Amino acid sequence: MQERLFPTWSLLDEASLEGLLGPAPAISIVDHAASHLTEAPLVTLIRLMIVRAIAKKGLALTAKGNLSRGDVAALFAEFDWPGFDKEMTLALNKVLNEHDVYPVHMARIVAGEAKLLRRHKGRFLATNRAKVLIGPGQEAALYRVVFETLLWRINLAYFDGVAIVDWPQDHIGLVLWSLSVSAQSWMAPRALMPICTLPYGAEPLNQWHTPEYAFEARILRQLTYLGLMEARRSIADHPFSRLEYRKAPAFDQLLRFDVDYIERLRPAH
Questions:
Q1: 267: helix, strand or coil
Q2: Tell me: the pLDDT tens digits for 113-167?
Q3: What is the largest CA-CA distance in the chain?
Q4: Residues 67 and 24 in one domain
Q5: Most buried one in 9, 43, 61, 89, CB count within 10 A?
Q6: Dihedral over Cα of 71, 73, 76, 78: its sign
Q7: CA separation (Å) from 236 to 142, 213, 233?
Q8: CB neighbours of 243 closer than 8 A, spacing ≥ 6?
Q9: Do residues 185 and 113 share a domain?
Q10: CATH number of the domain encompassing residue 238
């Protein structure tokens, strides 16, 4: 008889469930984990973008509002990004436009939404807020801004094109807590999804537009960009094998959850 898996969040009381929904007041960033705060790929790339914008008195924009090829190429040379193959990108593109370099495109959108960069006369300028947040002692504040903007203010469906509206981003705080107690070891998205998300209530459109793919693209993959999850191939050195995920050390170092459990039951760590 197959063992039935219950969602991790079923351990939580009603007030905790409510606290994990919305921009979640039950989740906080720990200020003292400085090394983790500065190593997150998305935060690092946005910082590079801000520093370059200050040094150049703005990043040049194309007529369509994207970053210029020169700025894209300069940023491309400096960043590291999980799962992004720089050699393949260079082999496929004679020149680098913003949309050819997914990390730069994503970072530019997040930085704009977070009001770290603003458009002015054909350039992207660093805002006063950005200049403060890249200063010494502001690592946690910058991380918090990027974290909250990416997960609660950006529609992550834009980046994956899956024909599933909102889910599971509409309860992402709950998913984060569930991952905190479920993703200690390497697991496939298919195994993590039923214990970390609210059930998806409709039939998938086809094999490419599935809840599993949306969960991986909108949650697990995004958390690797924030330095909170790690990914590896299920078959080592096989470039087309499925990915497995687990919490990175930064997850427990950076995130704190203010929750209570039904009848004070606490999950094993």
A1: coil
A2: 999 999 999 999 999 999 999 999 999 999 999 999 999 999 999 999 888 989 9
A3: 66
A4: no
A5: 43
A6: negative
A7: 35, 21, 6
A8: 83, 188, 189, 216, 220, 231, 232, 233, 234
A9: no
A10: 1.10.10
| Structural tokens at position 62 | 């194309």
Which of 152, 187, 205 corresponds to the end of one domain? 152
CB 17 within 8 A of CB 260: no
Contact residues for 80 (Cβ-Cβ < 8 A; gap 6+) = 41, 44
Domain membership of residue 2 (yes or no) is no
Which stretches in the chain have pLDDT values below 70? 1-5, 22-24, 33-35, 236-240, 263-269
Q: Which domain holds residue 137?
A: 35-152
Do 75 and 132 have their domain in common?
Answer: yes
Task: Give the alpha-carbon dihedral of 238, 220, 142, 20, to 10 degrees.
Answer: -170
User: Which among 128, 152, 176 is the end of a domain?
Assistant: 152
Asked if residues 162 and 217 have their Cβ atoms less than 8 Å apart, the reply is: yes
Nearest-5° Cα angle at 261, 255 to 266: 75
| Residue 3: inside a domain | no
How many structural domains is the chain composed of?
2
Tokens of 198: 């609210």
| Whole-number pLDDT of residue 1 | 39
State the distance between the two ends of the chain, measured CA to CA, in whole angstroms: 27
Q: Are residues 164 and 255 in the same domain?
A: yes
Q: What is the pLDDT of residue 266?
A: 55
In a domain, 269, yes or no: no
Residue 104 lies in a domain: yes
